Amino acid sequence: MISRRGLIAAGVLLLFFRRGKAWAKDPFETLQLFRPKRQAMAPDFTVPGLRASLVRLRDFKGQVIVLNFWATWCPPCREEMPSMERLYRRFKSKGFTILALSIDSRGEEVVGPFVKSFWLTFPVGLDPKMTVAGEYRMAGLPTSILIDRGGTIAAVAAGPRHWDSPAAHQVVATLLEDR
Questions:
Q1: Is residue 6's pLDDT more than 50?
Q2: Residue 51 half-sphere exposure toward CB, CA atoms < 13 A
Q3: Domains identified in the chain and CATH numbers
Q4: pLDDT at residue 18 in the model
Q5: Whole-model pTM?
């Protein structure tokens, strides 16, 4: 006959083996990302980039994208940019990009020097009239929209994040694995 204590221990072991990695905290939750209940396609856009280039969402089709809305005058935006650059450099060769859309009203005049001073290498677009920000219902700065390879909005981050954290790496890796 099995004792009550033995039954409890067996139940705990069974739960452990059935769940496996599920006991580890969900990286989306750790990063405090909102995951939409309904799938929605990310609206396409074309905005001016720096040095007369264009930034188009459709040019990154099939990649995992962090679409970041920010401004040079926003302290939390300034704080998260270096970690975004490190995340970009870590995963860019694997089908990942960051598209940073500045809502600065003075456009390239202030954004260009900012990008240069932070040594940012990911694509930067200009949305001074907040047209794209309005399409994405941006409510505050910074806001980041994670878009999966299929062009669907996978998660939203309102406020700054530590984008070079293990949780952020795991989120991006998970989105890259999903085909």
A1: no
A2: 5
A3: 25-177 (3.40.30.10)
A4: 38
A5: 0.85
